[in-house]
Structures are given as C-alpha cells and as structure tokens.
Design a protein that fits this description.
With about 425 residues, the protein is α/β, with parallel strands linked by helices. It has 2 domains: about 5-175 and about 230-310, TIM Barrel, CATH 3.20.20; about 325-425, Elongation Factor Tu (Ef-tu), domain 3, CATH 2.40.30. The chain has 11 helices and 21 strands. Strand 4, helix 5 and strand 5 (about 115) form a beta-alpha-beta unit. It comes from Sulfurimonas hongkongensis. Belongs to the peptidase U32 family. InterPro entries: Peptidase_U32, RNA/ubiquinone_mod_enzymes.
Length: about 425
Amino acid sequence: MSRVELLSPAGTLEKLKIALDFGADAVYGGVSHFSLRIRSGKEFSMEEFKEGIDYAHARGKKVYATINGFPFNSQLSLLKKHILAMAELEPDAFIVATPGVLKLAHELAPQIPIHLSTQANVMNVLDAKIFYEMGATRIITAREISLKDLVAIKKELPDLELEVFVHGSMCFAYSGRCLISTLQSGRVPNRGSCANDCRFPYEIYAANPETGTLFKLEEDEGVGTYIMNSKDLNLASHIDEILDSGVVDSLKIEGRTKTSYYAAVTAKAYRNAIDDYYDDKYEARKYQYELESLQNRGYTDAYLISRPFEKHDTQSLDFTMQLGTHQVSGQADESGEFFMCKYKTLPNGELEVVAPKNSKIELVDNEIGTTYERDGVVYLKLKMLRAKNGKVWEEVHSGNVNPITLPTKFAPYTFFRIKAHEDMGTYPKR
C-alpha cells in the first residue's frame, strides 16, 4: 500500500495554497450552493477554483471538488450544468453525497473519479459495495465508523479507497444528517446552510400538559447547558494505530470555514505525524503542541479507535469555544516581504515563526528587525513598524491593513504568533 494521503480543507484560494504549502497532499473545496457549505462556496469563483487546481497540479498535488449538497427537483437542470462546468476545470475527483448525483456525475463526466461523501453514512461492507459498484472509487466513511469495520470493508473491497476524518468539528447528529437548524431557523444543513444550533446553550424545562405547569430544570454548578455541543475531533496521537491497520488511504481534516492559520497548523501537525510514522520517529504527544494553539471546543478522539458506547468525554457542556495556547499576531503576505497585522503588535516583541514545510528562514539583524533561533524554534523581533508607504507606527492593531516591512523575506503566508495570556480569556458562557 502506498503512503497515506493528507487531505486538507480549502475554503478560499489563499487557504488552498496555505494548506498545500504547509504539507497537505490534496485539498477539497467547492463552488456554488451545490457544495457544502454555502458560505465557503461563495468564497470561490470558478476562475479562482481553476487557479487553485493549477497551483496544486504544478506541485504534484490534488484538488477534489465538492458537489455534495442534497438537490431538490427544481435544481436538477442547474446541477447538470454545474457538473459539466466543474469537469472542465479538471479536478482530481468529485465528492458527492447521494446515489442520484453519483450516477449523474458519472454519466456527464466519466473521466472524473467519484468520491462518496461522509454524508452518505457508509458504515458497512454492504453499503460500501453498492456505491463501489455504482462507480465510487473512494468512500469517505461515516464519522461513527470503527477501525475494525474499515478493515472489514477493505478486506472485501481491496481496490476501494477509504478516507477517514482525523481532525475538526464533530456534528451532534449522525454523520451530519441534522434537522435542528432547519427546525429552528429554516437553514437546511444538508443544503449547506447550517446555523450551528447545536453549539448554543439551552435551558431545559419539564411541562405538565394536564395542568399547563412548566418547571425549569436547574443544572448542577459547572455542568453547563451546551447539551448538544460536541468536542472537536483530534486523532493526531493515534496516527500510528490508524496507519498500522494498512486500510486507510486518506486522512481528512475538516474545516473549510476555519481560519488560514487553522489550515496551516493542522496541515503542519498531521504532515509531521505522518512523516514521523514512516520514518519510525512517531511520538504520540509531539503533534499536540501545534494543535493546542488553535481555538477549539475541547478535543476528543471520538469513535474511530473507541466505540461510541465506550466514550463519555465527547461533549463540551460548559462553553462553546475556547482560545488556544497561541494568538496569531501577523501573517506574511504572498510576496513574503510584508507583515499583515492580525493582533496588537509592538516593536521588539518576540514573535514565534510558523513557516511552511521545508521553507528556509534567513537569520538577520538589521534596522528593521532581527530573526534568531532558540531551542530549534525561529523567532522574529520587529525593531520598527515601518509600513510599505514609509510611515513608522508605534503599534499596529488588527484593523491596520498597512503592510509592515519585514527584516528579511519569508515564505508566503508564514505566520507569526505569541503565547496567549490570561487576560485574553476564553469565550464566555452565553
């Protein structure tokens, strides 16, 4: 079996490039409301998506186009046109969610491989075989599946590729088949417009229909009322177990609507874990340093390694989101010559450099700033905040869009971060 693929989300053209530069082998994303999510679909034009595909192919990497919405009859004519238009861009596969769309895509663009979305909820050999016979070359299995069941599917269908989620948001509902958002706000999750209603706090009441009496149920102190808020998936410390199975072809990271920093750090962490595995240097806890720098809802290893009934730590009951261990201060622009501010930055503050994989950082000391290494980590200090237009600032904040001159050229989209401190806090209970 060949080396496992690392597959990252691409919500925008910039995130696509970042994910690939930081270590992903392939990315997935889409255009229009036939792609979950609608928001990320609006962030890609057809021209930008084509540019992203060309960018990936020039680097020997892949792009999978998502056409994984659930269409209504009134949309079928438009869907056909969309499939043909996307096929002209020459992506490496289509990701679809329903048997009908799979059949249609196979008929209209037989040259494009078909990957079956996790929304199809494949959990067993029987369903996998049906979709394989229909033309699916890869199945993105249900998030509730176990490694044992993956082994069984691969044994029965050795030529069928299997893809599993290893990181990102977890849905309260079964593989994302949710109606809560539809019920409360009319936003249909499986058409790409989920309002994330499961992330809200709820008050619980008991009603007596005979008397009309309504009692509010009070929770114990510290328990919280985020009763449907799943923790985020994080399997970086189980990559060895997954790859030891020999049945997984692609490891997938969730997050097309997450930040550029998320795209970079997740790709970096899982790239290191995968490479270390094949180099016999795998260390289970090593990769959490980067992943813990991200905003998260608390982490869980969910169900791939352990069965659902064995897990009692998959919900985050008392908060919707918490800050990570680090705060991004800035990001190098695409030229690598300028610092774009993302958080309050002062002269002579120490910034940790998070650069794309295999990029070289020149150690310099000049009037603009200095770069230096300590304990294997490269840092940057800006002695002055001199903008591209020549103006010198005493401090810059996230609202300041002036490019700030860097003391040396960095790889495009390099990030600069500081450790989060207590007064940054966590997201409050609501």
